[in-house]
């Protein structure tokens, strides 16, 4: 089948769904092509913390009702180093800003439901998606669905297909400006229907390794511990996880920790990656298709949302006022914000994780860095304003 739309969106993760919802509300026709099923997309356990900019954008898309009802407003976040527990209030350093704890799975579910209600078209199980004539003014996408090959003609393509997607790979390799740093460890995550051990998140640095105490609701907890990049999920079980977590979190928290069966356990590798080519011809890269950050700074999903904000406002300008002159602003704005989020995520990762190959000096220097930032007003302000998210930049 041959069909046509204005914006072909590749990928129905949070980037694709949020962009699709905003464009539909603006009356800009779009179709999403997703290679998995909706259930599979929802089964992936990922982010948990939303910046205020992300919350506002989800509301603007019309998918914010449940988030506003069930999301947990957090006005502070906690840290610990070798078991000593500290709290940072976010609002005094950020003119009253805070974060909302609401799982990416729920954001995705809300966006899927909103899209269905507004009649947006998402083609799931679209296989072998290929981008064509992306340097022309008549690009198109081909894909297979239910055994048939289809062609989707469009004006622009939004590559929202994540790090392993096809969009970035469709840009000529000699046009890609890429930067990468791979960390020698991953995060082993566990989800359990147990009450969170603390009322706000706790980022724990310890000589045995990093740990994070997070949550999804007052009855559902999300925990992570740093594991060597050679570890496999088969090397771990619930009991071993809980024992190790207790060794890394403050003793009073270990005392009151409620353990229970794992709903989910998985290991995520940690890397920092930036593709500075975020727009090429008629293709725009958004979210994980363009950049990956270690989850230590809770930036991945939020950075994707800020790309969506810029892309959405650009497309409105193009279709309402023919402002194609603004197209270069997309990459300019998104890259400036991306590198600041990449820096913060890298800095939080270097500050809080144990580099076992590093020497005693490095561990002492890490401790001093932590002491300075946790105990100085300037240090706390720096952490707070990056954690709640830097402001979105306007197109003009
Ligand atoms: P996504 O990867 O979410 O979505 C891309 C979509 O495109 C997928 O549905 C995929 O199936 C589809 N796709 C891929 N190739 C395709 C093709 N060829 N054709 C059609 N469709 C295709 N961020 C945080 O802020 N906090 C966290 O704690 C956190 N934890 C994470 C844990 C893991 C294991 C991972 C991988 C990421 C984590 N992230 C976290 C980052 C994560 O939340 C991403 O930033 C977020 O999913 C980005 O959303 P998208 O850009 O939509 O990409
Ligand atoms: C989570 O709850 O999954 C989460 C929260 C904050 C992070 C990373 C992950 O920095």
Automatic annotation (TrEMBL):
Name this polypeptide is given:
4-hydroxybenzoate 3-monooxygenase
- Alphabetically ordered keywords of this record: FAD, Flavoprotein
Q: Which superkingdom, per the lineage? A: Bacteria
What InterPro entries does the database record attribute to this sequence?
FAD-bd, FAD/NAD-bd_sf, HB_mOase, RIFMO-like
- What range(s) does the FAD-binding domain occupy? 4-345
**What is the gene name?**
pobA
Give the source species: Psychrobacter aestuarii
Q: Which residues cross the membrane?
A: none
- Coiled-coil region(s): none
Query: What EC number(s) does its UniProt record assign?
Result: 1.14.13.2
């Amino acid at each position: 089948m041959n069909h046509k739309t204005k914006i072909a969106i590749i990928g129905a993760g949070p980037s694709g769904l949020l962009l699709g919802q905003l464009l539909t509300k603006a009356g800009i026709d779009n179709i999403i092509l997703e290679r998995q099923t909706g259930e599979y997309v929802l089964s992936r356990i990922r982010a948990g913390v939303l910046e205020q900019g992300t919350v506002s954008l989800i509301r603007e898309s019309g998918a914010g009702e449940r988030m506003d009802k069930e999301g947990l407003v957090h006005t502070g976040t906690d840290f610990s180093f070798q078991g000593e527990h500290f709290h940072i209030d976010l609002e005094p350093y950020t003119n009253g800003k805070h974060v909302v704890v609401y799982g990416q799975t729920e954001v995705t579910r809300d966006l899927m439901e909103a899209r269905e209600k507004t009649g947006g078209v998402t083609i799931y199980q679209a296989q072998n998606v290929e981008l064509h004539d992306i340097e022309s003014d008549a690009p198109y996408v081909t894909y297979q669905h239910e055994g048939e090959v289809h062609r989707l003609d469009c004006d622009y393509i939004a590559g929202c297909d994540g790090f392993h997607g096809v969009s970035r790979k469709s840009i000529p390799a000699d046009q890609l400006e890429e930067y990468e740093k791979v960390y020698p460890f991953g995060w082993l995550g566990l989800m359990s229907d147990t009450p969170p051990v603390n009322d706000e998140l706790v980022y724990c640095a310890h000589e045995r390794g990093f740990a994070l105490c997070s949550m999804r609701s007052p009855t559902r907890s999300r925990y992570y511990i740093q594991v060597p990049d050679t570890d496999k999920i088969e090397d771990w079980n619930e009991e071993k996880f809980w024992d190790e977590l207790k060794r890394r979190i403050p003793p009073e928290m270990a005392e009151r920790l409620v353990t229970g069966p794992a709903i989910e356990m998985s290991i995520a590798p940690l890397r920092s990656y930036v593709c500075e080519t975020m727009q090429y011809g008629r293709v725009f890269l958004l979210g994980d298709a363009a950049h990956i950050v270690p989850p230590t700074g809770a930036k991945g999903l939020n950075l994707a949302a800020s790309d969506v904000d810029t892309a959405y406002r650009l497309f409105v300008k193009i279709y309402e006022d023919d402002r194609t002159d603004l197209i270069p602003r997309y990459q300019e704005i998104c890259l400036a914000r991306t590198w600041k989020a990449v820096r913060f995520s890298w800095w939080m990762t270097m500050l809080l994780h144990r580099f076992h190959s590093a020497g005693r000096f490095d561990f002492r220097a890490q401790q001093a860095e932590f002491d300075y930032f946790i105990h100085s007003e300037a240090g706390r302000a720096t952490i707070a304003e990056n954690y709640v998210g830097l402001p979105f930049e306007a197109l003009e």
